[in-house]
Every structure is written in structure tokens, then in C-alpha cells.
Amino acid sequence: MTQPIKIYTDGSSRSNDTRNPNMSGSFAYLILENDSVLYEHSEAMGHQTNNAAELLGAIRGLRKAIELRPGCIYEVHSDSEYVVTGFNEWMARWFKANWATSTGSPVKNLDLWKQLFTLRTKNG
């Protein structure tokens, strides 16, 4: 059995206060194939929250892994509970509820969650 392509992601922001003009973020990802580095990338972003930076790391890492090794099994690893729980539990429910939370509120970072959902559903 072939080992999955592993994607380790992280994101951060200097502040989660969206009114703060100094709020800058960044993300990084590392892609491993058979425990060897296949690709790594980091990028500074402009005005972003920590959660958006975490999501961007997962999106860009998964997108790059699919580009490099299409049709594989992928494992996405993140230290963000928001990304992990959202990916494994909330996303499917949000989709069925027309992208609304359990309280009926709009999903935050909706454009990013939709990108991640598309990547996930295209690739199992």
C-alpha cells in the first residue's frame, strides 16, 4: 500500500483585531512523500486573521500536493483546532445548511471554507 502524501500546515497573524492596520499574517506548508520533503513553501500575507491564515495554509498546501501528485491519498495536518474540526466535522454540515452555522449565522471565512471544501470533494 502506498503511503499518503502528508501535508503539514500552519498559519499565524500578529493580531485578530480586524480593525488593526498592522494585522499581518503568514502561512507555511510542508509536503512529504514517503517521509521525504517533496515541497515546502511559506508566504507573508497582508491584512488577515489567524484563522484565515491557518485556512490558507491548508488550502494552498493541499492544492500544491494535488498538483504535484494527482490522484493520491492526502493527509492534512494542522495545529489549528478551527481547521481540523471544520474540515472533519463542520464543513459537510455547513454545505447541507447552505453554508450557515448551527445557529443560522453565516460561516466566517466562507470563501476560504468553500475552496477547501471543493478541494476535498474533488479528491475524496
Describe this structure as you would to a colleague.
- With about 120 residues, this protein is α+β, with helices and mostly antiparallel strands.
- It contains 3 helices and 4 strands; from the N terminus they run βββαβαα.
- It has helices at about 50-70, 80-95, 110-120, and strands at about 5-15, 25-35, 35-45, 75-80.
- Strands 3-2-1-4 form a 4-stranded mixed β-sheet, covered by helices on one side.
- Strand 2 (about 25-35) and strand 3 form a beta hairpin.
- The longest helix is centred in the middle third of the chain and has 19 residues, at about 50-70.
- The chain is globular and about 45 Å long.
- About 25% of the residues are buried.
- The mean pLDDT is about 90.
> In what range is the share of β-strand residues?
25-35%
Please give the order of strands in the largest beta sheet: 3-2-1-4
Give average pLDDT, whole number.
91
Radius of gyration: 15 Å
The tally of helices reads 3
Largest sheet: 4 strands, mixed
Looking at the structure, what is the overall shape?
globular
Short recap of the structure:
This protein has 124 residues and is an alpha+beta fold. It contains three helices and four strands. Strands 3-2-1-4 form a four-stranded mixed beta sheet, with helices on one face.
